[in-house]
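# nightly structure sweep
# worker-07 picked up a monomer target from the shared queue
# config: single-sequence mode, recycle default, output format = structure tokens
# input follows
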Amino acid sequence: MNDIAKILPSGRTLSAAMALLACALFAHPAMAGPGDAAAGKKVFKACAACHAIGPDAANRVGPQLNGLIGRHAGTAPDYDYSAAMKNSGITWDEQTFARYIQSPRAMVPGTKMTFAGLKKPGDIANVLAYIESFDAGGANAH
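# output follows
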């Protein structure tokens, strides 16, 4: 047996290790790469039933999302947040949003948000790019 064969795992173990690595790399939304705001606008239609964004955004069933990234959770003006969200300690950044939007109730038990979540990493990256394209005043920041 050559030296490489001595240090490599068997075929079955190697296949399992590679499958685990692929899951770790591709299941995490941060690995989806930069999003496309135009594609994210289409994904946001699922969010628009409860949330608004842009120059005329106002709170609806959910808070308006202008300037979300960098904002402390539970602090959008004039929105009645759940105690769970107000006390979550979250400051929205890309990774936190990506985890949250996959399963809001799993990340913040007791949140009012009833959305089941986005599952596709590309959709998450795209909707994040769309949300990030608006500053706190609702102007298109890009």
